[in-house]
Design brief:
The structure is a single chain. The chain is mainly beta. 0% of the residues lie in helices and 47% in strands. It contains no helices and 22 strands. The protein has a 6-stranded mixed sheet with strand order 16-19-20-21-11-22, with no helix packed on it. A 6-stranded antiparallel sheet has the order 13-12-14-15-17-18, with no helix packed on it. It has a 3-stranded mixed sheet with strand order 6-3-10, with no helix packed on it.
């Protein structure tokens, strides 16, 4: 029986071969020896998954080959003392028909394994909650993981959300508002994903910046039928980027003497709902004053009784 890859005009009884080399380095771009590399190929004739394992050599290299379709090759890279990573191997698009091989042949793909530093206990939670009131400030307590009194069990307004909703239909609505803070030197700033975090499960800088925080942030989700959607969150291709924040700041003579730091993964989303909009975000919060370390130990969630679905799985 002949298997046909019509999009390439190639007929073959077997999947084409692919050969790749993965080079594993650390954050200083030094080779990582004895890292465990797993590559997901396909059996050339049965098309079933064929997992290939191996370890990197003294130069951080691991090479393997096997059958592959246009979906490309999956990967997983691990070593004790490092965060799990992967290699970005793009989908193949060209076949050398005479050899039944994908091109490029034996190209090298580099991945960074990030050392585990000093992970600590943090408040970490996924929030998916209806704002309790429209057109008025609603405080959210990061240590309680809830709205402040009278809407919840929170006591301190670390985040203050104010939203207005005009919902005219499923594809015709405006949600407008913003996020503000309780103290003059509180705020948040954008947190671009570092290059070394691209293929790691730990994608962030380990510490929050000290300064350049903004006191206000605009929130919007508008859909006006076929005119399109306008949103203030999750730019395509940047889903992992988010924000650093500091709250509960104490100042003397205009200078911060105490602050508590955290991060928001992927931004803050707002969605239409009846009677009030829903706010969605994932945050990590360090309750120790002036400690900017945000490298979280997933085994040490300060929300000890949170359901699994409300707990982030990534550090």
């Amino acid at each position: 029986m002949i298997a046909t890859m019509e999009s390439f005009g190639v007929e073959t009884a077997e999947l084409p071969d692919a050969k790749v080399t993965v080079v594993v380095v650390d954050e200083d771009r030094k080779p990582v020896e004895n890292a465990d590399v797993s590559l997901v190929f396909l059996d050339r004739t049965t098309f079933k998954t064929n997992l290939t394992h191996g370890k990197t050599d003294s130069r951080g290299l691991f090479t393997a080959e096997g059958g592959c379709n246009i979906s490309g090759i999956g990967s997983d890279v691990r070593k004790d003392g490092y965060y799990r990573g992967a290699a970005s191997i793009p989908n193949f698009t060209n076949i050398d028909e005479s050899l039944n091989q994908w091109e490029p042949w034996d190209k090298t793909y580099t991945t960074v394994l990030r050392p585990i530093g000093k992970p600590i206990a943090l408040y970490a939670q996924k929030i998916d909650m209806e704002i309790p009131a429209l057109d008025k400030p609603c405080g959210f307590d990061l240590e309680a993981g809830d709205w402040v009194t009278p809407y919840g069990k929170g006591e301190k307004s670390d985040f203050i959300f104010t939203l207005h909703q005009d919902k005219r239909g499923l594809q015709n609505y405006d949600i407008l508002g913003g996020l503000t803070f309780s103290n003059a030197l509180d705020g948040l700033q954008e947190a671009p994903m570092s290059d070394v975090g691209t293929n790691s499960i730990f994608k962030w800088e380990r510490q929050a910046p000290e300064g350049n925080y903004q006191l206000k942030f605009q929130l919007q989700n508008s859909w006006h039928g076929n005119k399109g959607v306008t949103r203030s969150f999750k730019i395509p291709g940047r889903e992992w980027e988010g924000y650093f924040f500091h709250v509960r700041t104490v100042e003397q003579n205009g200078q911060i003497v105490s602050a508590r730091y955290g991060k928001i993964r992927g931004g803050i989303e707002i969605f239409p709902h009846d009677p009030n909009p829903v706010i969605v975000f994932t945050y990590y919060y360090n309750p120790t004053p002036n400690d900017r370390n945000l490298e979280w130990d997933p085994g040490k969630d300060l929300f000890r009784d949170s359901p699994l679905l409300e707990t982030p799985q990534e550090p």
